[in-house]
């Protein structure tokens, strides 16, 4: 079994190098690395990092968008370029512990009908403090749970490429919540998921280019709620009321 690792990046060569170093430390070695740059202005800095890691990894590809098109576009481009049946998605500012891929591959080899494997993760702020712990144990085809909230750390996932393509890839029109929307469409169409009950992913919370509670985040939530309202109604009649409550709550936090 081999894996395609997809990394969208924009202007953050220091974070990208940190991530690539963590990938270099993986105990599972059968992978290709695909980096898709979203038309960053600092191409000289990227050249240094890319030249270094193209010599370290056996299979390493670098693509650059002709114009700035957003992370979902870069992620989709990388998925289309992937050579292998499973892809591991990770943002350039996050990091993996050394056994992350090995743990996921073992699950897939044991249960080959699995479409989607995520891991536990810690969210860490700029001071190095753990501000949130992803510890959900939700598996199978959890329609209610995924419609209620995004419990899957986006940089922790390994997914069957075919499943991503059949479900239309990431919605490039969404200003935020693209990952939640992608997982939702997969689950609603029957995808089966498993979780690695081990902290294998570090999700960094910082102020350098993150969306947080910005107007983009609010708009993304509202689009998600409208997009999946009818599906939520079919799965559980209470969920649409929950969406309305969350929309008001997010609007109030944004206003404050």
Protein topology:
Elements: E1 3-9, H1 13-24, E2 31-37, H2 43-56, E3 60-64, H3 71-81, E4 86-89, E5 95-96, H4 100-110, E6 116-124, E7 130-134, H5 143-148, E8 158-160, H6 161-166, H7 178-188, E9 193-204, H8 215-227, H9 229-235, H10 239-255
Parallel strand pairs: 1-2, 1-4, 2-3, 6-9
Antiparallel strand pairs: 4-8, 5-9, 6-7, 6-8
Key phrases:
9-stranded mixed β-sheet; Spore Coat Polysaccharide Biosynthesis Protein SpsA, Chain A; about 40% helix; alpha/beta; about 260 residues
Give a brief outline of the structure.
With 256 residues, the chain is α/β, with parallel strands linked by helices. 42% of the residues lie in helices and 21% in strands.
CATH fold call of the largest domain: Spore Coat Polysaccharide Biosynthesis Protein SpsA, Chain A
Q: Could you state the CATH homologous superfamily of the largest domain?
A: Spore Coat Polysaccharide Biosynthesis Protein SpsA, Chain A
Q: How can the largest sheet be summarized?
A: 9 strands, mixed
* H/E topology pattern: EHEHEHEEHEEHEHHEHHH
Strands, total number: 9
Our count of domains comes out at 2
The DSSP helix count reads 10
Which CATH class of the largest domain applies here?
Alpha Beta
Residues in β-strands, percent: 15-25%
Separation, N- and C-terminal Cα atoms: 50 Å
By CATH, the architecture of the largest domain is named: Alpha-Beta Complex
- The poorly predicted ranges are none
- Quote the average pLDDT: 94
Shape estimate: globular
Computed Rg = 18 Å
């Amino acid at each position: 079994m081999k894996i395609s690792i997809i990394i969208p990046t924009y202007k953050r060569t220091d974070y990208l190098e940190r991530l690539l170093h963590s990938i270099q430390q993986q105990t599972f070695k059968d992978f290709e690395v695909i980096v898709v740059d979203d038309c960053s202005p600092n191409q000289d800095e990227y050249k240094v990092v890319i030249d270094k890691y193209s010599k370290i990894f056996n299979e390493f590809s670098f693509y650059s968008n002709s114009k700035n098109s957003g992370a979902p576009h870069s992620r989709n481009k990388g998925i289309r370029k992937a050579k292998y049946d499973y892809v591991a998605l990770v943002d350039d500012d996050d990091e993996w512990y050394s056994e992350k891929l090995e743990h996921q591959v073992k699950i897939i080899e044991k249960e080959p009908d699995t479409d989607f494997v995520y891991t536990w993760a810690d969210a860490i702020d700029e001071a190095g403090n753990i501000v949130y712990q992803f510890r959900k144990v939700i598996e199978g085809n959890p329609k209610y749970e995924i419609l209620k909230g995004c419990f899957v750390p986006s940089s922790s996932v390994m997914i069957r490429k075919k499943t991503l393509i059949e479900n239309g890839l990431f919605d490039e029109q969404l200003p935020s919540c693209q990952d939640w929307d992608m997982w939702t469409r997969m689950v609603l169409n029957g995808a089966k998921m498993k979780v690695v009950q081990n902290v294998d992913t570090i999700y960094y919370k910082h102020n350098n280019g993150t969306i947080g509670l910005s107007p983009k985040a609010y708009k993304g939530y509202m689009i998600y709620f409208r997009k999946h309202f009818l599906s939520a109604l079919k799965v559980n009649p209470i969920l649409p009321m929950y969406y309305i409550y969350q929309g008001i709550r997010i609007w109030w936090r944004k206003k404050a």
